[in-house]
């Protein structure tokens, strides 16, 4: 808890004076209700190691990736979603650990990018899905990253589609506020290379950021922690100037130790970053994307599909080549 408070104070002092952090949608602090972060026992890295014990890469992948606390992503592949999130949060709760979950099923997902296209069949289907997602967690402590890329993926969308998406996100946040009182929800805010801070602050606010605990940065991307911290502070400056509040933020550090080379889709030469922890220039540094999972049919993952575990990519990412 002390680390988290120090990180928040550092972020505040990096911003202009007279900022006021908006109250969280929830009073409870899940980091103080648990004893460390949950290691997903069925991550793609864990499964690969278990299936390939004789592979020369298995030991390094097991030590450096598979046993690091990281997020589990939930979408259409997850089956009955309330059952899935309930089982995951329940298993973590039994071990007194804090799970990280990613909700990734918004209608028209990755509409402009296309590599991870899909999602719910309609806005109403998404409303049902996300309500069940939150209801499955119920009062267990959890961290949720809400819909990566959803606020950055505006380039080809009409205003009506943007309004529709922001409405879905606002409703999602309301569901967590109502049904999951011990969950911190972070509304995804893209990364420093996507939208300028003023634009992202407006999108966050219009999507209901006041109801969220905070916002997330760098999900599945490669920008350094320092770059993300500067960007998060700049977004907060804009939030304060325009709307009179700021929010904590978290950074995905799973693949950012070598920084970005300007490519986002399976670039070569990247490296795993700081493991999941409290503080580190943000409220938390989290592994949200599993190192070694493909971004799509591109780069060093040519021929793969998004989310597919690539052991050679994982192995090279441990050493940075």
Question: Can you characterise this structure?
Answer:
- The structure is a single chain.
- With 321 residues, this protein is an alpha/beta fold.
- The chain has a domain at 69-290: TIM Barrel.
- It has nine helices and eight strands.
- The chain has helices at residues 2-13, 44-51, 58-66, 81-94, 123-137, 159-179, 197-206, 225-243, 311-319, and strands at 72-74, 100-103, 142-146, 183-188, 214-217, 249-252, 277-278, 284-286.
- It has an eight-stranded mixed sheet.
- β5, α8 (225-243) and β6 form a beta-alpha-beta unit.
- The chain starts with a helix and ends with a helix.
- Residues 1-19 have low confidence and may be disordered.
| The CATH top-level class label of the domain at 69-290 | Alpha Beta
Kindly report the CATH topology of the domain at 69-290: TIM Barrel
Percent helix, as a range, is 25-40%
Structural class: alpha/beta
Main β-sheet description = 8 strands, mixed
Radius of gyration: 18 Å
> Number of helical segments?
9
Which stretches are poorly predicted, pLDDT < 50 over at least 5 residues?
1-19
Question: Proportion of β residues?
Answer: 5-15%
> What's the CATH architecture name of the domain at 69-290?
Alpha-Beta Barrel
Order of the strands making up the biggest sheet: 1-2-3-4-5-6-8-7
Give the SSE string: HHHEHEHEHEHEHEEEH
| Molecular shape | globular
Oligomer, anyone? Answer: single chain
End-to-end Cα distance: 36 Å
EC number: 3.2.1.-
Signal peptide: 1-27
GO molecular function: hydrolase activity, hydrolyzing O-glycosyl compounds
Protein name: Glucanase
């Amino acid at each position: 808890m002390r680390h988290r408070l120090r990180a928040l104070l550092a972020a505040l002092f990096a911003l202009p004076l007279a900022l006021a952090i908006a109250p969280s949608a929830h009073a409870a602090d899940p980091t103080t209700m648990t004893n460390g972060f949950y290691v997903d026992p069925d991550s793609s890295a864990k499964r690969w190691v278990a299936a390939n014990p004789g592979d020369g890469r298995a030991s390094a992948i097991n030590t450096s990736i598979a046993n690091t606390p990281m997020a589990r992503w939930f979408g259409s592949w997850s089956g009955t979603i309330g059952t899935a999130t309930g089982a995951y949060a329940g298993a973590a709760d039994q071990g007194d650990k804090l799970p990280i979950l990613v909700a990734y099923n918004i209608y028209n997902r990755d509409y402009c990018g296309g590599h991870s296209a899909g999602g719910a069949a309609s806005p109403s289907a998404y409303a049902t899905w996300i309500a069940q997602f939150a209801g499955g967690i119920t009062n267990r402590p959890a961290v949720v990253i809400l819909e990566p890329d959803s606020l950055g993926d505006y380039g080809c969308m009409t205003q009506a589609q943007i309004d529709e998406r922001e409405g879905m996100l606002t409703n999602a946040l309301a569901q967590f506020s109502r049904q999951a009182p011990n969950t911190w929800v972070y509304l995804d805010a893209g990364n420093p290379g996507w939208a300028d801070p003023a634009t992202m602050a407006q999108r966050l606010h219009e999507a209901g950021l006041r109801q969220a605990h905070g916002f997330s940065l760098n999900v599945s991307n490669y920008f350094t922690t320092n770059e993300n911290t500067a960007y998060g502070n700049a977004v907060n400056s804009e939030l304060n100037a325009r709307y009179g509040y700021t929010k904590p933020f978290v950074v995905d550090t799973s693949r950012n130790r070598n920084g970005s080379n300007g490519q986002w889709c399976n670039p070569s030469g990247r490296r795993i970053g700081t493991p999941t922890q409290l503080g580190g220039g943000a409220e938390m540094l989290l592994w949200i994307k599993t190192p070694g999972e493909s971004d799509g049919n591109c780069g060093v993952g040519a021929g793969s599909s998004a989310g597919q575990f690539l052991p050679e990519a994982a192995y090279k990412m441990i050493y940075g080549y």
